[in-house]
Structures are given as structure tokens and as C-alpha cells.
Design a protein that fits this description.
Blueprint: H1 13-28, H2 54-123
């Protein structure tokens, strides 16, 4: 039985509050291990619980929004660093390609000089 169902008479308001806080924490952080509230059916609509005061839900919403705003800066910094890493990797590959082409032309010129020197030596 989940916390969204009608609660029996033997469940205290403190238990209901504890369960609702656990559900809110599990929804806020999906990385929590072994939480039975992580994968609920999204089509289910929760029943308003009279034991939970509106100030508590607004406080949880505010805490989650504040946490998301703090994490947004980290996500933006992480995306920026990934972009810079990809850009540096691309520049490194371009530099390697340009260096390889330069070395190939240098080797071809050295081969031509060696052939010319060999031809001159054979003609004498």
C-alpha cells in the first residue's frame, strides 16, 4: 500500500508525515537506493493528505527549487567544460593532421633529393 491511498485509522499523523517526506525526498533525488517510491505510475494522482500542512509542502517545493537552481550552475559549468574539451580535442586532431601532411611533403622532397643525388652519382 502506498502513501497516496486512503490511510487506515491505525496510522498516526507523524507516520503519514514521515512517509510524505520520504516520498518527496525520493522524487527530488532519484539516486536514492532502494526507495519504493522512485518508480511510481505517473498517471496516478496523489490524494491530498489533511495531516500535511500547506507550509510544509511549500517549504519542500522551495527547497527543491533552490537545490535545482544551485545544481543548474553546476550543470552549465559541466556543459561548458565538455564543450571546451571537445573543442581542444578537435584542435589537437587538426594539428596532428597538419603535422602529418607537413612531414609527408618533407619526406617526399627528401626522397626526390636522394633520387637526384643517386642519378648524379651514377652519371659520373
Amino acid at each position: 500500500m502506498t502513501a497516496t491511498a486512503v490511510r487506515p485509522a491505525d496510522v498516526s499523523p507523524a507516520d503519514v508525515l514521515r512517509i510524505s517526506v520520504r516520498i518527496a525526498a525520493a522524487k527530488a533525488d532519484p539516486q536514492l537506493p532502494d526507495s519504493p517510491y522512485r518508480e511510481q505510475d505517473p498517471t496516478m494522482t496523489p490524494i491530498a493528505d489533511p495531516a500535511v500542512r500547506p507550509e510544509q509542502t511549500s517549504e519542500l517545493t522551495l527547497q527543491n527549487r533552490t537545490r535545482d537552481m544551485h545544481l543548474m550552475h553546476e550543470a552549465m559549468a559541466r556543459a561548458h567544460m565538455q564543450h571546451m574539451h571537445r573543442e581542444a580535442e578537435h584542435e589537437r586532431l587538426v594539428r596532428q593532421f597538419v603535422d602529418a601532411r607537413r612531414m609527408k611533403r618533407r619526406a617526399e622532397r627528401a626522397g626526390l633529393r636522394a633520387r637526384r643525388a643517386l642519378a648524379v652519382a651514377l652519371m659520373q
